[in-house]
Amino acid sequence: MPTARAIMSPGTECVAADDNVLEAARKITSLGVGALPICGTDNKLKGVLTDRDIVVKVLGKGKDPAHTTAGELAQGEAVTIGADDDADEIFATMSRHRVRRLPVIDGHSLIGMVTLADVARAMPDPQTGDLLEALSTD
User: Fold this and answer.
1) Domains in the chain: ranges and CATH
2) Which stretches of the chain drop beneath a pLDDT of 50?
3) Backbone angles phi, psi at 117, to 5 degrees
4) How far is residue 105's CA from residue 112's CA, in Å, rounded to a whole number?
5) How many CB atoms are closer than 10 A to CB 76?
6) In this predicted structure, what is the pLDDT of residue 129?
7) What is the pLDDT, as a whole number, of residue 88?
8) Which H or E run includes 117?
9) What is the CA radius of gyration of the chain?
10) pTM of model > 0.85
11) Which top-rank group of organisms is this from (predicted)?
């Protein structure tokens, strides 16, 4: 079974917790990704900012993205996966926390992101369907 390290997208960039959401949206756009980890000034992971967060929690609530920080959207402790955890553990973590992206941690360092698409490519077809179903139901 492949590990997170084997199936992740390496070289993940962070958005700083004190960056405004407008800057974060521009970074998401320029990188062509759907989410960025939120990192604090201490270089610790604070959460993950998604394009959906920007639309629902900022624009949809009438907040000004130039005056809302990425850190304001971080929700408690970030859900992560260890670099050497296998696809079954990634599957279980995504299902349990109902997330589609997981930051990959090696020790205390962020080394990449693993997405639902990464897992789908790495897992047998029945498990992929189970994961999609788990993440798609309310």
Assistant:
1) 4-136 (3.10.580.10)
2) none
3) -65, -40
4) 7
5) 7
6) 59
7) 85
8) helix 116-122
9) 15
10) no
11) Bacteria
